[in-house]
Specification:
The protein has ten helices and no strands. It is mainly α. The longest helix has 25 residues. It starts with a helix and ends with a helix.
Length: about 170
């Protein structure tokens, strides 16, 4: 495998995209930002490209565990020893991934939001998506739809209010 394809493996991309968070979490467990940084860099280098995020249940926990093990091995090779209490506390890396129930609830909320948005006029749907999903500014949206910025703001407020009201109605029915 050439070096270019090695650099873009899914776990490497995940590690790079979430580096700051992974480093902070690992630093808390190791007690050193420098050790966390070294361990994550070594983890990055050791990812051989055969891993795939879809084969790893929780890429974040997987990478933290790998980096922790690398850090632990480095400390051992340097003659640094953890107490059994420190090792026990570090071995229990929490799985921050949402559980199955939260994932199902989130999917249900997304489906509910899609249905609620379908009640809006088409332009209001498009403006809401442009603002919230695409991150366009009010000016960019106004230019895209050939309307004034104040009209964009008015339609966006109405669309958001509609979605909020309908979500609350649905929640009170449950």
């Amino acid at each position: 495998m050439d070096s270019k394809s090695r650099e873009s493996t899914p776990l490497r991309v995940y590690l790079v995209d979430r580096y700051a968070d992974l480093k902070a979490r690992l630093a808390r467990r190791l007690g050193s930002s420098d050790w966390a940084e070294d361990a994550l860099q070594d983890t990055y280098l050791r990812l051989d490209g055969y891993e795939a995020v879809d084969q790893v249940r929780n890429p974040g926990a997987y990478l933290l565990r790998a980096a922790f093990n690398i850090a632990l091995n480095q400390r051992r090779s340097e003659g640094w020893r953890l107490s059994s209490k420190e090792t026990d506390s570090l071995m229990h890396v929490a799985d921050d991934a949402p559980d199955a129930l939260r994932m199902i609830e989130s999917r249900a909320d997304i489906e509910r939001l899609k249905a609620i948005m379908a009640e809006l006029p088409l332009r209001a749907q498009q403006i809401l998506l442009a603002a919230r999903l695409d991150g366009l500014s009010r000016i960019e949206i106004a230019e895209r739809f050939g309307i004034s910025v104040s009209m964009v703001e008015k339609e966006l407020r109405r669309a958001q209010q509609h979605c909020t009201d309908r979500f609350r109605q649905d929640r009170t029915k449950e």
